[in-house]
Specification:
Elements lengths: L2 H20 L3 H14 L3 H16 L13 H8 L12 H12 L4 H5 L7 H15 L9 H15 L2 H9 L25 H9 L25 H24 L5 E2 L8 E4 L6 E4 L3 H4 L4 H36 L3 H9 L3 H10 L1
Antiparallel strand pairs: 1-3, 2-3
Helix pairs in contact: 1-2, 2-3, 5-8, 7-8, 8-10, 13-14, 13-15
Length: about 350
Amino acid sequence: MTIEGNKDEADRCIEIAQNAFSAGNAEKAERFLLKAERLYPTARAKELLARVRAAGSTGNVPKRTPPSSPSAEDIRRRKTPTHQAPQREYTSEQQEAVRRVKTKCKDYYEVLGVTKEATDSDIKKAYKKLALQLHPDKNHAPGAAEAFKAIGNAAAILTDPEKRKQYDLRGEEPSHATHTHHQYYARGFESDLTAEELFNMFFGAAAFPGGGPTVYARRRAREPEPRDSHAGVVQLLPVLVLVLLSMMSGFFISEPVYSLSPSPKYPVPRETVNLKVPYYVKENFHTDYQGSLRRLEMAIEEEYLVGLKHACQRERNYRDSVAWKARNFGDSRHSADAQRLRMPSCEKLQQYQR
């Protein structure tokens, strides 16, 4: 929450305190005035707090309005519906921890409070300390969720040797850059793990028993919303159109000339002249195909190489994820297994690129 946001919230607390004091509830008035002082100290709150405490000590608290004659303020409040959820308390230390991460840190090292020479163990210790301090189930200060996500992303990047190396090569942020809520520490270096997944890896899923449901799960089922029958029909229309188009396409689009894998429809094996890529055609290919064989094989080779590149990238991602988990859990056996993982698609791609 910004300073202006704190001031608005403090003014609202003062108004609630004034109404409570007028109704004879000095305890409630004092509680909201203390909260206003924490959010944004003002002379107005201090003066009213002194009056409330003085009235409480002398017993001169205004009498509550009898139920039979409600005040105009009571009538106004009854007519005005309130749908705001009750606010949860937080300490000034929790608020300062959130403010430090959101406004005072220009890179991942400052987010975790470590130097650039910090070891992997130093980074993990710093993360554990901050994670327990900033987790939204424990810290209810405004902005705690964003700060918690920031330290999680910082720890995930800096504990991965390759990503940390790439991050360090980017250099420092220019001194004239303007800080907004999109901080420098999120500049294109996003972890594959969510903040909550990383937290659960370090502490387990039940680190805060009884805490509310977290909002950081990457994939989360949502409760179905009630829909009327007309809305359902309208939403099904695009699907029905696609089904009809796919049925009609059979009348206008001819079957492929080749396949990269054998099947009863494509049983005859062939290979391209240039890269020797295997492909399969129908039995009547020699008599029915009238196009340019050279162009056809160029298209076959392009499709084959694109498929290899995608498969190679999936193999690398899997190996990197296994290696990352092994490093973070100190499992040398799984780390060695990750290094021994074969990547057949990458090996084939290298052969064609020589």
